[in-house]
Amino acid sequence: MSPLSRTAALTLATLLTGCTLGPDFHAPDTQAPAAWPALQDQAAASRPSADPLDVTWWQRFDDPLLTRLIQRAVDDNLDLRMAASRVLQARAARSTLVADRYPSVDAGGQLNRARDSARGPNAQSGQGAYSVWDLGLGASWELDLWGRVQRQVEAADASLAGAEDDLRGVLVLLLGDVARHYIDLRQVQATLGVTRDNLDVARHSLRLARQRFDDGVATRLDVAQSSAQVAAIEARLPLLEQRAGDELEALGLLLAQPPRRLAEELATPGPVPEGHGTFAMGLPSELARRRPDIRQAEARLHAATASIGVAEAAFYPSIRLTGDLGLQALQLSELGNWDARRFAFGPVLNLPLFEGGRLTGTLALREAQQQEAALDYRKKVLTAWHEIDAALRRYNASQLRRDHLAEAVRQSRTALDTAQRQYVEGAVDFLNVLTLQGTLLSNQEQWVASNAETSEALVTLYGALGGGWQAFDGDGPRTAAR
């Protein structure tokens, strides 16, 4: 090969490969701590460990019905399916940008019936109308000299990753919402059971007061106070039943079910789900790869960084190779003649000279957007650490409160039984019985609520850790196509 040929080949290779403008993206440092913050009170029953995160955390509650509800929500939830549709949209948008990497080829044909003006420059041909047949192929390809197309595709890839992480984020929220509403439903049902049990006790006390009044050893005040106690407990039932219905409807909406569809399935009370033992949190350094919102923020930062390269490439000239090959004739029968051929080839150069500040403004906008995306990423990471710390403290406190309330319930029940016996024996006033009965009911309700709060705190902790979506990853986009 001659020196001239080698130079031409090198020049062509340089034009074809070009260079890529703009900053390259590097994943930011999350500055994760070496270990999770320890629980403040070592008396808590459960402690965090660095073992791999349990991505199917809902199975820790050992409640098959909860597991089935979660699977149905993943299959049918409308918010999740809309998020999956956004993934498909991002994928389709990416494909339109990837097409700029390749030449575009078009085929066309047309028939024009025309007549030139007899008074115009083609006056001699203006005596009659004529037909023009035209068939051809056109091709166009922009040389990506400065990496504009490459950066566009890179930004689209990042946007697609962000849409996928948005889907994962919706899934994490959905898993937590289903678990929380189910726990709340079981809490209300348990509270209803406690209230009805106490109502039976109050009615027994009322019968006892009436019997002693009839025997002349009790006053009408005892009967009135006991009747008021019964009425007060009965007044709790309608509100609790309403709350149970609200939780059923909330679950039905998450499962995309019409109103009252789940009433029969969940009408039978069940125990409040409880997590047991230690819980695995994984390594702190893994958090950025687990939390969908952090992953999505990183994808937005990546897209914003790549967009700077697109804006910078707009300052440089662009070269588009074009070609047109076809046949043209006045008669259809003449299209096959060699003389009917036509062609045109050549590069098209576009060099921006004056844009009135448009290019400069666009570049400044992209750089500012990247700065905002970087700050948003830092905020997402910082928020995640705060949420985890708060969830740990809440889980620890709720466990301790639950255990203390369990002891309070045991002691209140013993005190009430003792007071009832002493009242029958005439050793204590009936007001003591009523007071202890109210205390027992209050402690029982608080214990049920604390038990549910402990379970919800564990659900919140797993949500803060970004757990759950891994068990279904890849299923979401298919739901949109169903």
UniProtKB/TrEMBL annotation:
Keywords of this entry: Cell outer membrane, Lipoprotein, Membrane, Palmitate, Transmembrane, Transmembrane beta strand
Statement: the UniProt record of this protein carries the keyword Ligase: no
A Gene Ontology term for the protein's cellular component: cell outer membrane
UniProt cross-references to InterPro entries, sorted A to Z: MdtP/NodT-like, OMP_efflux
Alphabetized GO MF terms: efflux transmembrane transporter activity
Subcellular location(s) per record: Cell outer membrane
Membrane topology (UniProt): Lipid-anchor
Major location (coarse): membrane
Keyword Cell inner membrane among UniProt keywords: no
Pfam families, per the entry: OEP
Similarity field: Belongs to the outer membrane factor (OMF) (TC 1.B.17) family.
Protein name, UniProt field: Efflux transporter outer membrane subunit
Source taxonomy: Bacteria, Pseudomonadati, Pseudomonadota, Gammaproteobacteria, Pseudomonadales
